[in-house]
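Table 4 source record.
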Amino acid sequence: MFSPGPFRGSSKVEHLAVNQGVAGSSPARGAVYQSLLRKHGTWPYTVLCSGIWPTCFSKETRMKKLHYCVYVLHSLKDNSFYIGFTKNLKQRLTDHFRGNSKSTAPRRPFRLIFCEYFLSKKDVLRREKYFKTTKGKRTLKSLLKHSLNLI
């Protein structure tokens, strides 16, 4: 059976880029993922990684879709952040961009500069709460310093 070993770092969100293989892996691993895709039809699923890759993909170990998203919008008007979470990012961004949200309507236009997906609603709420703290905002600015320079 195929077992690539531990992932680099813990709590990383790894996306299976089937068309391009997997970042940092051999073309053979990409072929394994493509065969799994054909067999199980699990695209576009992602997995929250912390530990060792499962050695087989049965129905019980099939990867779960990450439902909850914490996102950060950058206001081009007042250069501030808006931090929120959602289960449907596309719809939520449409609401913000059209001015259907009272808290963001006067601060438009926005750019989406960051989003992070989670399996659990509790985890996404905890992450959103952290990003709204002073330390969390510092972390965001540090993570996104190159992106913020491009705006």
